[in-house]
From TrEMBL:
Biased composition (Basic and acidic residues): 8-17
Underlying gene: Srbd1
Name assigned to this protein: SRBD1 protein
InterPro entries (UniProt xref): Ribos_protein_bS1-like (IPR050437), RNaseH-like_sf (IPR012337), Tex-like_central_region (IPR055179), Tex-like_dom_sf (IPR023323), Tex-like_HTH_dom_sf (IPR023319), Tex-like_N (IPR018974), Tex_YqgF (IPR032639), YqgF/RNaseH-like_dom (IPR006641)
Sequence segments annotated as region (Disordered): 1-77
SUPFAM superfamilies: Ribonuclease H-like, Tex N-terminal region-like
Organism lineage string: Eukaryota, Metazoa, Chordata, Craniata, Vertebrata
Amino acid sequence: MSSLPRRLKSEAKAHTSEDDELPSFLNSSSESEEEEEEWEPKSKIAKRRQLPKKNEAKTKKVAASRSAVSRKKVKKVAIKEEMDVSLPIAPAEDNRMQLLKPKEEDVGTKPKTLNQINSFYGKNAKSLESDEKPSTSIPVAGNQVKCEKSEEDFGSDEPPFKKIKSSTCPEGKPVKNLGGNKIKEEFEMNWDIVQALSEITNVEPWVCANLIRLFQEENTIPFIARYRKELINNLEADALREVQQTLEELRTVAKKTHTMIQKLKKEGKLSGCLLTALLNCRTLEELDHVSAPYKTGSKGTKAQRAKQLGLEPAALSLLQNPMELNLFSYIRPNTKGLSNIQEVEAGVQHILADIFAKDKDTLDFIRKLCQQRYISIQSALAKVSSKSGNEKDIDKFQLYHEFSCNIKNIQHHQILAINRGENLKILTVKVNIPDGVKNEFCWWCVNERWRPKQFLKPELMRILRNSVEDAYKRLIYPLLCREFRSKLTSDAEKESVMMFGRNLRQLLLTSPVRGRTLMGVDPGYKHGCKLAIISPTSQILHTDVVYLHSGQGFREAEKIKRLLLQYNCSTVVIGNGTACRETEAYFADLIMKKYFAPLDVVYCIVSEAGASIYSVSPEASKEMPDLDPNLRSAVSIARRVQDPLAELVKIEPKHIGVGMYQ
């Protein structure tokens, strides 16, 4: 027992020195606790961390000289102090405070403690940061827990963002934009891929930027549509597919452009103007327009031949410094193309026309102009086909022999029909751009875009006007026609696929007729009507052939009645092929006369598209090896009513016959 007072005495001194540093509210709380708490025996006192041995030796020497009376007082004070201050604050690293977590039995007993601690931190924040040593303990018992909460976790009326985990943001921060709209592509162009994608698809630029990044991270469209809605502004899956397809087209253009640049660089044909023109291309049509003259085997354009004769400085001088231009100095009597002033003027004109036709601003202006005007597509019967051609094919396209329609209003099926007629050389197709577009374009070029920097002589002004007209007629107009036709065809093909999908969906989701025995009828004249009776579980019960349209109708009716009664079949399914109407009239007449009594027989007509092709397919041979192909088609017709989905999936989609054009 003698060692206990000595140790407690030294601890009491230490605590009394620390109490001087405590703020007033902590001292008051400890005093109130002293009054409330009772003395506990030594066994219940919480064990404290042992102090270093050196300190213990010193405290023993000091305690030895004390009297017995003072030992009793020290004992009482030390126990109370130990109960009050159970666990000290550990030294915090990086100037961060670690709070103490209250024990379960203490929770709710002293609700003011946390507020007092918070106010203490607010008042003494500076002093806590400056002190390297920890201050005195805080009257909250329990385990040590770091209290590090970010500001966003505290009071906020708005719901928290969804945590998004990606390679660019692995910690899962909520972001609307995955790092700005600038995307670095493999092949750099003069246009920004995000802006180009946004303009073509009419989707917001930030959504396009997010989609490009998501596709780069190999996320699939179902995943993006379901789990990344906040990044794509809740776009539908169809819109995502369109964006993906457009993105692939733009990347294809960029890749082909850079391949062409490398090729021209090797051949030594690449110039600064050509490089700019190539990097401005956004579509394959524009790329073909710019690169066509430089392809292998090409004779070269008129502009290239004029440049080879050395007329490019004259053409540039006409625009930049026309006062010093003298075309007569370029005449070379013995050189073809420079022998007289007319040939020199023609060469300069070709070079200027080439410059105008490849200028981005000029092409943008003419496209914008065309959007505001009435542009029509016209088709007519080709002269060659009218002389020598299949009359049957020509009659197919009778609607389009004299056809004209605005390109904004033309239907998709009309575009496909015109294209097919043109491929068969039955129709000739032309895009009609009004003369007003040409006149306004020529005026804008001469007076605004390509206006010379100095006064032009009348003969030089004539060359400039002729160059603009030549550029429009020979280069720009064909380019516009190709662009219009290409866009119309592309849109029509997309729509035809969409329509096929819609029709096929409706066909496959047709309600099945379950639990009935069915008789399938594949009608015909010469080879008779093929019959097949199938059970409710699609098992083949009986097959036969009847000749209803060759004067034996009454005798065959007895046979049909016997089969229907034998298999208790009350539903007849008729295919809509040859002799469909006659077969329908035959069964309707017998039903009206109640010939099949006591059975209440009904009939329906179903599409037999693809049934003939299916009947001779390998799948049908495996499924019905012992049946004749003619009877297989009757089985297929019956099963199309019993379970349309299960039967139609056996047939190739192009043979089902629900699309715009097969």
